[in-house]
Amino acid sequence: MKRLSALCLIFTFLALGWAQSASGAQAAGAADDPPATLVAAPESSGTIGKSAEAGTGTSGTGIPDKPETIVVPGDDAGETAPAGDIGAEGEDPGEGEYGEPAITIADPLEGYNRVMFQFNDKLYFWVLKPVAQGYREIVPEAPRVSVNNFFTNLAFPIRFLNNLLQADFSGAVAEAGRFVVNTVWGIGGLMDPASSKQLDLPKHDPDLGQTLGMYGVGQGFYFIWPFLGPSSARDSLQVVSDYFLYPVSYINPWYASTGTRVYQEVNRTSLTIGDYESLKEAAIDPYVALRDAYAQYRQKKVEAAKGNLEPPKPGTLRIGQAQRQLSLLQEPTQQESPNEKEKR
Questions:
Q1: How far apart are CA 49 and CA 47, in angstroms?
Q2: Cis preceding linkage at 253, omega within 30
Q3: Which of 225, 228, 233, 314 has the greatest CB tally within 10 Å of its CB?
Q4: Which parts of the chain sit beneath pLDDT 70?
């Protein structure tokens, strides 16, 4: 009954999201102002934006090739600024640095979403980050990267099925090849020989939200899940699909499965501490920064599935990961030394 209730709730969100998108499109048509299309977000990280440290392992994330521009609603309508100098909400988004319109997402539940943003923010600083820092002090980086590789390899069914649903058969074959190679020669996925220069099997990170978007389903409205982080009416269905396709969900008893997921998130966070902090220091309104970055990142994934853009590197948004994804929309003025990163 709990699962059925959750499904009904998510489908209700999806229906409301479609209605919101449809009404917005009609209003735009009446004003002869067609809705904006996405500005490509830069190439990025494994699970939603891994830092360069994680990228050296298996997350597949790295520093973007060029800075993307997020439109900054500010005192002047249409004012833009580089990502990282995110302004307060209230003005028209305008265009990005490269003349491309910025992507926005409807936010009718802003009051609720801001409360959930604060909840997840406190959870990160008060619980997740301290635990991850202690874990990082005890466990060296190499084993932590191997653990991240293992869980990434374990999520193979999610990626494989969505490649098939998107009719990306070459991607499905490559994903199957990566799974076999990393499972057999990578000792159960602890290593990533499939990414070696000899094999060079490309990484893919499709998901159900991207698949639905490729077939024309709009994002709908913005929604923040407690613990899980940013989502949308459309992408909330991904929560259900990921649950049933991820093998960890079938570990019994239930608290063993939950504990495994918590450990996975702590390990992942230990590889990317500092990204969220950088976002909060740079953004005037971190809530708006997170929302806009999420909308642009998700739209870029959809455009990539349609073959219009280069895809962002593998990533999914969850608490701690959503914050890390924002760092993909920012390019530091200079590389941090390992000592500087450790101090953060």
A1: 6
A2: yes
A3: 233
A4: 1-102, 308-344
Sign, Cα dihedral of 204, 275, 297, 5? positive
Q: What is the pLDDT of residue 269?
A: 95
How much is the pLDDT for 101? 60
Place of tokens 């494989």: 160
pLDDT, tens digit (0-9, with 9 covering 90-100), for 263-296: 999 999 999 998 888 878 888 999 999 999 999 9
Does this model's pTM top 0.90? My answer is no
Residue type, 72: V
Predicted local distance difference test score (pLDDT) of residue 45: 38
As given in the structure block, the two tokens for residue 148 are 């991240």
Place of tokens 């101090």: 343
- The packing angle between helices 156-165 and 236-245, to 10°, is 120
